[in-house]
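so the lab meeting is tmrw and i was supposed to have these ready like two days ago... anyway. pasting both below. for each one the top line is the aa sequence and the line under it is the structure tokens. i havent really looked at them closely yet so no promises
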Amino acid sequence: MRTPYLLPGDLVFFTAPGRPVDHVGLVLWNGLMAHASYRAGRVVVGPIAAYRARYIGARRPLGSGF
């Protein structure tokens, strides 16, 4: 999964079977994102690539200055 176009603050979206968007993460830096983990019961930081099979796209929030 190539993510060179992602900048800190971008939102990344992931899917699951039967759901168009199942999970959202916030891009941090160096291929990492912050996301709420149901399994861990808290916000965690982890590699975006760990979700590569479920990745469906990214968006940059309006007014981000980029």
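ok protien two:
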Amino acid sequence: MSDQIKDNLDLRESVNLADKAKREELMTSGWWHSIDLGEGGITPGARKIDELRGQYACFNLPDDLTGKRVLDIGCRDGFFSFEAERHGAKVVAIDCWRPEKFFEAHSKLNSRVEFREMSVYEITLEALGSFDIVFFLGVIYHLQHPLLALQRVCEVTGEIAVVESHVIDNILDTAHPVMEYYEYNELGGQYDNWWGPNTDCLIRMARTAGFVRADAIRREPARSVIKAYRNFEEPPSESTPTIQIFDVVNAFTYEHHFPRRGRYAFLQIWADGVPKHATRENTHVVVEGFGAAPIYVGQVEGVETENTCRMVINFPVPPGLVTGTVLVWMFCGDQVSNQFQINLCDGPEW
């Protein structure tokens, strides 16, 4: 029996009308973001200052970002770049064009935000380095290759990424993670809108891209904000490891050859003393400070007790690592393993 998906045509029309109104306001003022330039001067943006401040507040970032690097992808006029800078961060802003209003606000604010004209697909660790916080706001549904873009975002994210998007949770009523495709201008009358995910799909895509966990932190009728993390929540602090990793091999070749990226960038842990209740969901791997979510956890023949056994754990190499020696370890519940050393080498992009 097939699912009957209800289509909320009224909300579709409401979204399109709201987008049309914002485009008309943009055409009139030339500003997309309302930005406080000081001394009572606020740019006449299509997105109002209170709305933008409220969105930034929902990110729940520290008030003091001194010492943090922030990347703002698709910065447009720069509200979020300048707001992070105002809180003390060192900010790099990128867009696929050179937005005139960004530079106008940049000059009036005497900002030190660094601007780079580049596509999201050009983002690499080599090109930009790593950032503590990445903003990826209102961009993903404009992209033909959203999962690839999230992988690029993950590669340069050191701690968290904040992702905001148009979503279809209240447009298509389904319990499944889905994404709607727009061939032409079906969304908002714009030809550069390609996708409409639901929030569950967006969260799962973030995890597939290399983030180990992601949560929705704000939901509106047709927009959602998620916060994606490179690390698990606080791991246990078992003083003496009870899980013993005795080997790590390449999960494809079974050799001790470990490319940091590409189609063979998957590892396999062999470990004794793993709890028999270990599953893909409750087993966590850490590689040189980055979490990695297992794609397979299974028992194999070997040392076995009443409560523990030998297991293999397959998982992808976390994005954003560099070549050289790294430490691999794992935990399951309150039990942790020893640290096992491997050497990452360069690999092909694909």
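from a quick look at the 2nd one: The two ends are 39 Å apart (CA to CA). Residues 244-345 form a domain with the Immunoglobulin-like fold (CATH 2.60.40). will dig more after coffe
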